[in-house]
Amino acid sequence: MAEEKPHCKVVLANSIAKSLLEEVHDGLKKIDRKPLLVGFLSSADPAARVYAEWTGKTCNENGFAFELREVDRELLEDAIIDANNDAKVDGIIVYYPIFGNRQDQYLQQIVDVSKDVEGLSHRYIFNMYQNIRFLDEHNQKKSLLPCTPLAVIKILEYLRIYNTILPYGNRLHGRTVTVINRSEVVGRPLAALLANDGACVYSVDIEDVQQFHRGEGLRKRRHEVVEKPGWTLENCLPLSDVVISGVPGDKYKVPLNLLREGAVCINFSSERNFSPEVKEKASIYVPAIGKVTIVVLLRNLLVSKR
Ligand SMILES: NC(=O)C1=CN([C@@H]2O[C@H](COP(=O)(O)OP(=O)(O)OC[C@H]3O[C@@H](n4cnc5c(N)ncnc54)[C@H](O)[C@@H]3O)[C@@H](O)[C@H]2O)C=CC1
Ligand SMILES: Nc1nc(=O)c2c([nH]1)NC[C@@H]1CN(c3ccc(C(=O)N[C@@H](CCC(=O)O)C(=O)O)cc3)C=[N+]21
């Protein structure tokens, strides 16, 4: 008998973005004018330009104004300060990499917290790692989460990896997730967020493997990190219900032979980290997430205005 096609469901970012956009449209109705998002492009990275162009398109199609300011990187600091002080500007995003070193982190912190839609201001990142979910003591103002990690979470919610039978904050209890990338903008915050929600997370970078977890019975209030000396993907992948990969460059491929049968695979790299054969083994495959990230950006802008 001929073999049937593999039963992998490929979920595209577009369908997930659509359900989030409805929420954004509802939020827009509650404010009296068209919000203005300003993007600063001083990066030579082609991915940054493409991302900026998509952001503009998504804004225009959904009732936001977007202004792209292309400035020389030496003038960027003052340009950000001007936007901070301009009451007409509701949100600011600065595209990276610019200098590709610690100066980028310095510039990131120049953006006023109230206009930071990317959620990378120190205050937001601190709250995230500490598992503090609100900015005020009355739990009225939500602390923003970094866009790309939050986009991944929205995808996991959409895919029902988050179990809504469990209380909010513990909905990943029992899930094991591998995150391949530990950058300060995506991989490390993502591992922390998933672990704060109850998952056992293996965070893999080019050097080593770390485990992020709230401990047996989720007794801890926030995640702890332990080194896994000698561990590699060979140890993590066979244990993982979900594999999230974001390795830059077109050389890298996740070793599919190590994947658990029926794993959920998500790629956030600009390049495909999973070869097409992933569909032979995965139950769900999400090949790219950029469109969701942009909608989360708009959602963050609205949340910060509340
Ligand atoms: N879809 C989206 O919304 C977004 C996508 N990206 C994309 O994600 C990718 C990563 O971006 P960043 O985190 O900013 O990059 P980065 O260069 O700062 O970090 C790369 C990470 O991957 C790890 N890595 C590299 N080679 C590896 C290997 N062979 N095995 C295991 N780990 C390895 C590094 O150790 C590091 O932790 C890029 O392609 C970028 O364009 C970035 C931001 C948002
Ligand atoms: N401040 C800042 N924040 C960023 O988030 C940021 C940045 N700077 N600089 C540039 C990188 C790059 N980046 C991507 C966005 C979407 C896709 C992506 O996955 N896009 C398509 C995939 C395209 C394809 O089909 O190959 C999609 O989701 O449909 C990739 C990469 C965000 N970045």
UniProtKB/TrEMBL annotation:
Biological source species: Clohesyomyces aquaticus
Protein family: Belongs to the tetrahydrofolate dehydrogenase/cyclohydrolase family.
Entry GO terms, CC: cytosol; nucleus
E.C. number: 1.5.1.15
Protein keywords: Cytoplasm, NAD, Nucleus, One-carbon metabolism, Oxidoreductase, Purine biosynthesis
A GO BP annotation: purine nucleobase biosynthetic process
Subcellular location: Cytoplasm; Nucleus
Domain Tetrahydrofolate dehydrogenase/cyclohydrolase NAD(P)-binding: 146-206
Domain Tetrahydrofolate dehydrogenase/cyclohydrolase catalytic: 14-118
Keyword Phosphoprotein recorded: no
SUBUNIT field: Homodimer.
Enzyme class name: oxidoreductase
MF-aspect GO terms: methylenetetrahydrofolate dehydrogenase (NAD+) activity; methylenetetrahydrofolate dehydrogenase (NADP+) activity
InterPro entries hit by this protein: Aminoacid_DH-like_N_sf, m-THF_DH_NAD-bd, NAD(P)-bd_dom_sf, THF_DH/CycHdrlase, THF_DH/CycHdrlase_cat_dom, THF_DH/CycHdrlase_NAD-bd_dom
Protein name: Methylenetetrahydrofolate dehydrogenase [NAD(+)]
The keyword Oxidoreductase belongs to this UniProt entry's keyword annotation: yes
Stated role: Catalyzes oxidation of cytoplasmic one-carbon units for purine biosynthesis.
